[in-house]
């Protein structure tokens, strides 16, 4: 509350008292140097978070939607980052962040299983990823196995049968779990429909927990180390403004602390559990919100020190790092990928 009030005071001071509506940014499609405050009084990306007005920033170009274009594989890297021989399960991998993270895991050597409520989308994504791998690696000794599974992560029976199906199709092996299935909704707290709230927590919190517990049972039984990466959100640490989304924020705080708690509980079994907390990323989820509220984007971007929303590709390195042996001594951590939003 204090933060919002202080930001609004700063915004008013910059704009003058009569300029109450925040206009859309103009510097989002071309790479250009933009001044903090222009003569036309327009708000610039990151301006509220800078204290020295003489500093200008190079604004990165930004598309309207997430690019899911496969990224070329670079073969030379630290061995500990390799996921060769590992099987990764990604919930919510049919699209958005989950899809791009699946791609990152496959590019790094893993086989993958996509679990999604949208089974058709999952199958399409699995096919696209495999075709891309083949075209990029025509001489590869083997192509990755990428399977698709229709599943509702909020349902214990659905999760149980899906994990069993994945184990059958992947030689009884799961080494990595990434939980990206989740969603957000905006209602004023006093008007939030209770059934919607239960649905939200059912997917975001129960869904993360149920998948983790089911995969942990397998890892413990198999007596092999494993890595879990929960996709939380910066909303689990800060309160987004101006959109009201208290239950979502609380659900993501729960996801973050679930990662820490399970990290401690399962450390003795060699299972690491970490959280990635993305900031504002351009995906179908946020695009829908921004389409409904065009002024929001200017407001959001003005609060991000890097001066741009994240692209799904910005999560690729983070997820491979936490999934792989490169992060062997890291567990219970929260890695924020938010362009600096939460450090101010
Ligand atoms: N996009 C952002 O700016 C952003 C920021 C922070 C955190 N996140 C989090 O990242 C995750 C992915 O977000 P996204 O932007 O890629 O969303 P998205 O809507 O593009 O993708 C979510 C995927 O989850 C699937 N899904 C939804 N409910 C499911 C269920 N019950 N069972 C199985 N699958 C289900 C959907 O079918 C979809 O494929 C979410 O947990 C979200 O809260 C997103």
TrEMBL record:
Residues 136-156 are annotated as: Disordered. GO terms for molecular function: mannitol 2-dehydrogenase (NADP+) activity; oxidoreductase activity, acting on NAD(P)H, oxygen as acceptor. SUPFAM superfamilies: NAD(P)-binding Rossmann-fold domains. Residues 144-156 have a biased composition (Polar residues). The keyword NADP applies. It comes from the Eukaryota. GO terms for biological process: mannitol metabolic process. Gene3D superfamilies: NAD(P)-binding Rossmann-like Domain. It holds the Pfam family adh_short_C2. Coiled coil: none annotated. Keywords: NADP, Oxidoreductase. The keyword NAD does not apply. Belongs to the short-chain dehydrogenases/reductases (SDR) family. This is (Perigord truffle) hypothetical protein.
